[in-house]
Amino acid sequence: APIAAAFIREKKHVYVEKPMAKTIFECRKLAELAKEYNIVSQMGNQGHASEATRRVVEWVRAGVVGNIREVHMWTDRPVGFWPQGDIQRPAGVKVPKNLNWDVWLGPAPEKPYHPDICHFVWRGLWDYGTGAMGDMGAHIYDAPLWALNLGYPKTIQATSTPYNSEYLPLAQTVTYEFPERYSRETGYMPPVKVKWCDGGLLPERPAKLEPGRRVGTVFYGDKGIMMGGNAVMPSLVPADPDFKGPDPWLERTGDIFEDWIGAILNGKKSCNDFSWASRVTEIMLLTNIAVLTQRSNTTLEYDGENMKITNLPEANNYFHYEYRKGWTL
């Protein structure tokens, strides 16, 4: 986030990978700066530009399965991809000559280098990453968030396997409650419950899902059930191969990187700019706050407008952290 912020202040267009930031404060600050300096921003969530995501939005908005009351999502990560859990950080070794470890650390606390921390596996450590939700949540959460016009959750509750001060838990389940919504574009939408599982934990299998058919992101409506989302075209449960769904109506943007370049060249807004990306990322990061405070046995109540947990004051300590000396946002 500090690097992106520095470029924005120089009025440079910015493309970041997901998650766009490590804390909710950083998310909001980057979105604020992108608007203030009028630059074209983009978060590299390829699924947002996909045909599958747009078809899911079109199906939900058309009421194919009625009003959605509950959504279940999951990923098997981090299992088989990077370590997480109640494990020890490896002892430090000599930094290779081709790596500036100080710059790599950025605002994170100064700690010894090890190759099992750097590169891909940093995702599983609190100092640098945001776990499986931060890695895959941007992909998986995007379609439901868009389709259902979800704003801030009203409550967040989480349980997880053991973790420690270095590593995030191996597996977790999270439940969000979103209030009713209304907009000119979508009309009225009722309250909805959203459940997330990762690390090998799975949501309930729909009773009507055919044997052998893989469970994806599941939308439970008052008129039926559908699945679809991250690069997965929507389908009914049980399947109906003759059902084609509503006519497409959303704009198709193509490749997300090309969309960003096109927005720069044509003076337009990109499809996944920081105003949208910060919304998706904030919900993902609320998961980690709920995990870190789960020992309180408190379902967190969130005042999103004021970026504040209202019923557990200590939870608000996790909205940002003190940067290492020399780094600012």
CATH homology-level superfamily = Dihydrodipicolinate Reductase, domain 2
From the helix content, strand content and strand pairing, which structural class follows? alpha+beta
DSSP strand content: 15-25%
Distance between the termini: 7 Å
Number of strands: 13
Using the coordinates shown, work out and report the CATH topology: Dihydrodipicolinate Reductase, domain 2
Written as H for each helix and E for each strand, in order along the chain, the element string is HEHEHEHHHEEEEEEEEHHEE
Main β-sheet, in a few words?
9 strands, mixed
- CATH architecture tag: 2-Layer Sandwich
CATH class: Alpha Beta
Strand order, biggest sheet? 11-10-9-3-8-5-4-12-13
Low-confidence sequence ranges: none
Mean pLDDT equals 96
The level of helicity is: 25-40%
The DSSP helix count reads 8
Number of domains: 1
Give the overall shape.
globular
Radius of gyration: 20 Å
Describe the structure.
It is a single chain. With 329 residues, the protein is of the alpha+beta class. The protein has a single domain (2-279, 289-319), classed as Dihydrodipicolinate Reductase, domain 2 (2-Layer Sandwich), CATH 3.30.360. Helix content is 25%, strand content 19%. It is built from eight helices and 13 strands. The chain has helices at residues 2-9, 24-36, 51-61, 101-105, 131-140, 142-147, 256-266, 274-292; strands at residues 14-16, 41-43, 68-74, 155-160, 172-178, 181-183, 187-189, 192-198, 218-221, 224-229, 232-237, 300-303, 308-309. It has a nine-stranded mixed β-sheet with strand order 11-10-9-3-8-5-4-12-13. The chain has a two-stranded parallel ribbon with strand order 1-2. A two-stranded antiparallel ribbon has the order 6-7. A hairpin with a 2-residue loop joins strand 10 and strand 11 (232-237). The chain is globular and about 60 Å long. The mean pLDDT is 96.
